[in-house]
Structure formats: C-alpha cells, structure tokens
Amino acid sequence: MNGRNRDYCREWLKKAEHDLITAHSVLALIDGPTDTPCFHAQQAVEKALKGLLTFHGTDFGRTHDLLALFDLVSPLLPELARFEEGLGVMNGYAVEIRYPGDVMEPDRMDALEALQIAVQVVAMVKTLC
Asked: Tell me, what's the pLDDT at 101?
C-alpha cells in the first residue's frame, strides 16, 4: 500500500473517532436521545470500513450500506464476521433513523450495543492502517 492510501485511511479513522466521541457524549446524558448515538455509531463503522478499503485501494462507490461494505472488507478482515448481524441492525441507523416516520426509536440498550460494536470495529481497522 502506498503512503497516500495510509494517510487517507487515517483521515477516515479520525472522522470515525469523532463519531465515537459524539455517540459517547450523547449517551452520557441522563435522558439523552438514543437515535443520535445510533446514527454516529453507524457512521463510525461506515467510515472505518471505508478507510480500510481506501487503504487497500478498493473502490466502494457511494453507499451507506454496512453489509455491502462488510462484503468488500471481509476478505481483508475476516474477524469482522462476528459483527455481521449487528451491522445489519445498524444499517437502519444510517438514514431512516434520522427522520420522523414509522421507524421504531432504539432504546438505550440498542444504542449501547451499536456503540460497542463501533468501538471494536474502529479499533480493529486502526491496527491495519
């Protein structure tokens, strides 16, 4: 991998870490919302996976779909497989959760679980680029 790919991966990871900080901060509020940390957890995972793909020079197009990114990243990071189900749940946190409608509001446990997955995925990717 070239140095430019490594630098760009690290930029993606920096943005992912900003999303983790935001999610942690909102969850620290006693009666804080749960949709916002779920969105930022999803964003952290999305950015980490895009960073890893960038590091490897793999095109990922324009997507927020964590499972599509998962499929591209799996050969590069097989240990990510344990998060596949959670990433599927988190897919709904990318767009739908941000707008009013028929989407069920996640509870605090959902938000904590999403954040836990995001923290682990970002940490895994960080070791690779």
From this structure: 77
Structural domains of the chain sorted by starting position, each given as residue range(s) with its CATH number in brackets: 3-126 (1.20.120.330)
Residue 1's pLDDT is: 55
Q: For every residue of 77-116, which 3-state class applies, written as one string? A: CHHHHHHHHHHHHHHHHCCHHHCCCCCCCCCHHHHHHHHH
Report the Cα 125 to chain-centroid distance in Å: 11
- HSE, CB side, 13 Å, CA atoms: give it for residue 71: 7
Owner of token pair 């749960």: 34
Distance CA 61, CA 80 (A): 20
- Are 71 and 12 in contact by the 8 Å Cβ rule? The answer is no
pLDDT tens for each residue of 73-99: 999 999 999 999 999 999 989 888 777
Alpha-carbon distance of 115 to 40, in angstroms, equals 8
